[in-house]
Design goal:
Layout (H helix, E strand, L loop, with lengths): L5 H16 L2 H6 L1 E8 L6 E2 L1 H14 E13 L3 E12 L4 E14 L2 E8 L2 H9 L3 H5 L3 H21 L5
Parallel strand pairs: 1-6
Antiparallel strand pairs: 1-2, 3-4, 4-5, 5-6
Length: about 160
């Protein structure tokens, strides 16, 4: 990373502070209209409206989300942060603690690309428990099942939102 860009460091921090408060309007202000998001579950979500619907869905299935971030770094083009997500996965009622590496790319002084990495197998064991998460969390077929289910949930969630036009 080249020279530190304090505005971009502040932008990443503002995003995580908004996430911590579940303030989706403030989160949205951090994103470019053409933002794309990806993580091990939601592999590729394109456009601010879809990305924000995904965050609303995620916040809805994560009861009591605590987002603790650290190690925020940014230059004129890219940024990184580490954060810990602590929540109850509403589908199973199980406690989850995920260590997440976040990568950002900036355009027009907002986030245009947001990518996150976490240990899918570890997440699966915590969120889904035994036997599914423990036995199958590492298999490509199980990952595809989780990803397909998440994509379907997002599509259904978006379809249920009030029309914005």
């Amino acid at each position: 990373m080249s020279k530190v860009n304090d505005r971009h460091v502040a932008l990443i921090s503002a995003f995580f502070e908004a996430l911590r408060r579940a303030d989706v309007a403030a989160m949205e202000r951090c994103y470019h209209p053409d933002v794309s998001f990806g993580d091990p579950v939601f592999q590729e979500v394109e456009g601010r409206e879809k990305v924000m619907a995904m965050w609303r869905l995620k916040l809805g299935v994560r009861s009591g989300l605590q987002a603790d971030y650290r190690d925020v770094r940014a230059d004129d083009h890219t940024g990184t942060a580490r954060w810990t997500a602590r929540y109850t996965f509403s589908t199973t009622g199980r406690q989850v603690v995920s260590e997440v590496d976040a990568l950002f790319r900036f355009e027009d002084d907002v986030i245009v690309r947001h990518h996150e990495e976490f240990d899918f197998r570890r997440w699966s064991k915590m969120a889904l428990g035994r036997p599914h998460g423990l036995l199958f969390g590492w298999t490509p077929m199980w990952r595809k099942t989780i990803r397909d289910r998440a994509a379907q949930q997002l599509a259904e969630f978006r379809a249920a939102l009030p029309s914005q036009g």
